[in-house]
Amino acid sequence: MLRVAIIGCGEFAANFVPLFQAHPYVENVYVCDLQDEKAQNYKSRFGTEVIATFEDAIAREDINCIAIFTERYSHAKLAIASLDAGKHVYSAVPMACTVDECRQIIEAVKRNKKTYMMGETCVYYPCSMYCKEQYQKGTFGDFVFGESQYFHDISHFPKIYQEDINCYTLPPFYYPTHSTAMILNATGAYATKVTAFGVCDKDERYKDGNNPWNNPFSNEFSLMQLSNGGVARVSECRRIGYKAPSSYISGFYGTQGSYQFSNAQHIVTTLTEKGVDMLDVSDMINPIAMTQNKNDKDFKKNVANHKWQWNSFSPVQNKEKARLPQSYKRIPDVNGHMASHQLLIDDFCTGVYEGKMPYVNAWRAARYTIPGIIAHDSAMQGGVPLDIPDFGDPPSDE
């Protein structure tokens, strides 16, 4: 049975405590935060035991899993320490902020024979799942070009985030996996080379020497060569006057067909002997709650403000939804990010309990993370093309 210590008691982790508690393979959940008042708040809300420090958590023999929900630039150090303490690790994204940290996590997984999983939501986004399914069926033919992006304007971030210079000025491509994962999951490929550019922000905090990353960019854009011969345009934007959908594939093109998306409309076109067929698959991919309200007077405004892109499952997710534990049906509103949270926590808990490699394991997490790290290097060098290091395929479960 899993006994999980959650490290970091901020707003985001609160979405996951009930999911760990409700999972049939989890025996107990503990919480830990450097700010004790945050941990005590979780204790009151969720009835969890508080552990004073991270070091105490990884030292306890009764705890076998660590779930990391701290600041995004701190994940790698905590993950490596947890693995070396003999714990299984669930980490919020990103995996790390350097290529070497990604390598160290993979080495720690191999050395300690423990499970590592990065909680990448977008592998379960309906757009990525649909493109993957149709691509594997041959609907699109050979992959040619794809476009994916994560548009999350800083103005929508919590105040505590905006006041933390480390978080506020983090290079957008150091948080790349919401955009890279969608295309790479759908194609089954990995990125091999990248060229990228950034837009310099006028905020004083982005000026030279004014932030710990020496980062001038709040918006970054790239072209990536993939291992299957295709090309992807991947964008990470934090100052773009846009809210929803924050993560999406806008285009997925092959030699025989294509997928295109804008706001709430999903279109598939396929070549035929007489021309091109076009099919609207919006009702299959959009959240069910969105489809149920598509004739509302304020439908477009609600779509733009993320009303239905949190808890509601999409029909294309039904197969994955069916494998969730019965205990999750008692907490149907505890979900998030296009209804991906329940699927992610079930992946981790089932993987640890059954001794099987989770889908977003250390090797796949590295393939989603490293292209962004190298893309930022390219942008800082004015767009020079750079090779992307790769640590290979994950080993079999054995």
Keywords summarizing the entry:
398 residues; alpha/beta; Dihydrodipicolinate Reductase, domain 2; nine-stranded mixed sheet; six-stranded parallel sheet; 23% strand; globular
User: Helical stretch count?
Assistant: 15
How can the largest sheet be summarized? 9 strands, mixed
Described by the principal axes of the CA atoms, the overall outline is globular
* Class from secondary-structure proportions: alpha/beta
Name the strands of the widest sheet in spatial order.
Answer: 14-13-12-11-7-10-9-8-15
- Enumerate the spans where pLDDT stays under 50 for 5 or more consecutive residues: none
CATH level-3 fold name of the domain at 122-354 = Dihydrodipicolinate Reductase, domain 2
How large is the radius of gyration? 21 Å
Helix and strand succession? EHEHEHEHEHEHEHHHEEEEEEEHHHHHHE
How far is it from the N-terminal to the C-terminal residue, by CA?
20 Å
CATH architecture of the domain at 122-354: 2-Layer Sandwich
Could you explain how this protein is built, in words?
By secondary structure, this protein is an alpha/beta fold. The protein has a domain at 122-354: Dihydrodipicolinate Reductase, domain 2 (2-Layer Sandwich), CATH 3.30.360. It contains 15 helices and 15 strands. It has helices at 17-22, 36-46, 54-59, 75-84, 99-112, 126-137, 159-162, 165-168, 177-187, 282-285, 288-292, 299-304, 318-322, 341-354, 362-380; strands at 2-7, 26-32, 49-50, 65-68, 88-91, 116-118, 143-151, 191-200, 217-226, 231-237, 247-254, 257-262, 265-272, 275-280, 386-387. It has a nine-stranded mixed sheet with strand order 14-13-12-11-7-10-9-8-15. Strands 3-2-1-4-5-6 form a six-stranded parallel sheet, with helices on both faces. Helix 4 (75-84) packs parallel to helix 5, helix 5 runs antiparallel to helix 15 and helix 6 runs parallel beside helix 9 (177-187). The radius of gyration is 21 Å and the shape is globular. The two termini are 20 Å apart.
